[in-house]
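Q:
My hope is that you can spare some time for a protein that puzzles me. I hope you can help me see how the letters and the tokens relate. Thank you; the sequence and its tokens follow:
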Amino acid sequence: MKIRPAKLEEFEVLYEIGLNTPELRVSANEQFMDRDDFRQRIQNPQGVFLVAEQEERIAGFICASAKDADSPLQNKYACLVYLVTLPEFRRQGVARELYSECEKKLKELGITHIYSWANIEGDGSIVNFLKGQGFAEGHKYVWMDKEL
């Protein structure tokens, strides 16, 4: 398995993965993240966007925002935005490899803490995965949104 930075020319494939991953849906109004926002994150120097490749196929991706990297504060936070492994590649260590490399890249950017949101309406696998990476479960919230 190879972990590498995502390429802009992979945008359509990656976006399609996001659209077709029910666990990534956080809104009743939107199927997935805005296309322009997602595209921008692939090349954002204030973030990490990595792809797992197995047998020359994309097996999954991870996206983290590191906007606090330039903060003058001692603690610098990053948000783990998305972590997805395609169903046929699950239970093979893909998510663990993606997360490990992402954490390494975030540390290189000066990030000291990471947080994430997890959809608990699924089978609980993402919550259990994050706990296995050392995340502590926080408060439970309800995501609400409205288009203006």
User: Anything to note?
Assistant: The two ends are 43 Å apart (CA to CA). Residues 2-132 form a domain with the Aminopeptidase fold (CATH 3.40.630.30). The mean pLDDT is 88.
